[in-house]
């Protein structure tokens, strides 16, 4: 009988089709989330554990790593890893892996769904029909904005940002982007400042990484530069946008529309964003298709297996 490798699972993978079951089938899983006193549980069960699985929702703090003296690998489900203390992991020689690429297309698709829904007032139109107002009151919903041929600005031209940009070309758009540094391997226009990109764009899509380095990157100045007809789309991380400044800009008419899949204090969403006709709001479902969630699950498990088989993960976090 083969002895299963022991791992620690920080939290349940409720959003994945079968990750919990597959982990339990292949490994001796210590389910940390079921223990109220995590410190005591780790002290009792953490010795000898070399691998930990988590996600951006649960993260992995330096304190958690310190409680696991033998830890060598952290395998995360999802592309974002801002809640994992990567610096602390590197200092300890702990490998950190994520699941890039496999969710790129679905997140890019959703960004475009949000953009079109905002520009064409799809959410407002659906509510109008569902509420029985069509034909019952004079007039209809306000006119929307044409999408084709407009100017698309992208904040963060990584894997997902580039996939969003390619889709923009299919809508005959001019595409520009803002990054920490200009890329020499793409033909899209580069804007050295975020405010400059916002002033130029009709649509501004936020696709940058999360974390402390990008918190409130999109603030009042950029939001107001986008203007009273501008539309901002966020499929990155909620804290990248200053949510209070965005809400104020929408209410004052200095910003036209916001289409959001992520929020600063999830799952809490301000009433002003939930109830207004200037917003489209979704519950962080960028990767929420069966195909993509299964691919994320597969890659997380492949990273874990590779670590135990070879000592190296397949997709180390960049």
From TrEMBL:
Q: Which UniProt keywords apply?
A: NAD, NADP, Oxidoreductase
Q: Where is the D-isomer specific 2-hydroxyacid dehydrogenase NAD-binding domain?
A: 113-286
Transmembrane segment boundaries: none
Instruction: Please give one Gene Ontology molecular function term for this protein.
Output: NAD binding
One GO CC term of this entry? cytosol
Concerning Pfam families, the annotation shows:
2-Hacid_dh, 2-Hacid_dh_C
Task: Specify the domain of life of the species encoding this protein.
Answer: Bacteria
Question: Is Protein biosynthesis included in the keywords of this UniProt record?
Answer: no
Keyword NAD: yes or no?
yes
Protein name per the record = Hydroxyacid dehydrogenase
């Amino acid at each position: 009988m083969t002895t299963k490798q022991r791992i620690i699972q920080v939290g349940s993978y409720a959003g994945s089709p079968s990750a919990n079951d597959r982990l339990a089938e292949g490994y001796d899983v210590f389910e940390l989330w079921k223990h109220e006193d995590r410190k005591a549980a780790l002290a009792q069960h953490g010795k000898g554990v070399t691998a930990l699985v988590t996600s951006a929702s649960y993260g992995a703090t330096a304190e958690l790593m310190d409680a696991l003296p033998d830890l060598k690998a952290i395998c995360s489900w999802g592309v974002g890893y801002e809640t994992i203390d990567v610096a602390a992991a590197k200092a300890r020689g702990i490998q950190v892996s994520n699941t890039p690429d496999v969710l790129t297309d679905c997140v890019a698709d959703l960004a475009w769904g949000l953009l079109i829904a905002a520009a064409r007032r799809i959410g407002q139109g659906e509510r109008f029909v569902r509420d029985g107002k069509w034909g019952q009151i004079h007039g209809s919903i306000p006119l929307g904005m044409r999408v084709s041929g407009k100017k698309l600005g992208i904040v963060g031209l990584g894997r997902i940002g580039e996939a969003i940009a390619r889709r923009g070309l299919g809508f005959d758009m001019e595409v520009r982007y803002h990054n920490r540094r200009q890329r020499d391997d793409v033909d899209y226009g580069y804007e050295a400042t975020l405010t400059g990109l916002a002033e130029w764009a009709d649509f501004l899509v936020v696709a940058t990484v999360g974390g402390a380095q990008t918190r409130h990157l999109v603030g009042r100045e950029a939001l107001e530069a986008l203007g009273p007809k501008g539309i901002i789309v966020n499929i990155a991380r909620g804290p990248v946008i200053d949510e209070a400044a965005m809400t104020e800009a929408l209410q004052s008419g200095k910003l036209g529309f916001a289409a959001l899949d992520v929020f600063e204090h999830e799952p809490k969403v301000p009433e002003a964003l939930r109830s207004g006709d200037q917003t489209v709001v979704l519950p962080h479902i960028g990767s929420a298709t069966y195909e993509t969630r299964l691919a994320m699950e597969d890659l997380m498990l492949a990273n874990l297996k590779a670590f135990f088989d070879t000592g190296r993960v397949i997709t180390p976090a960049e």
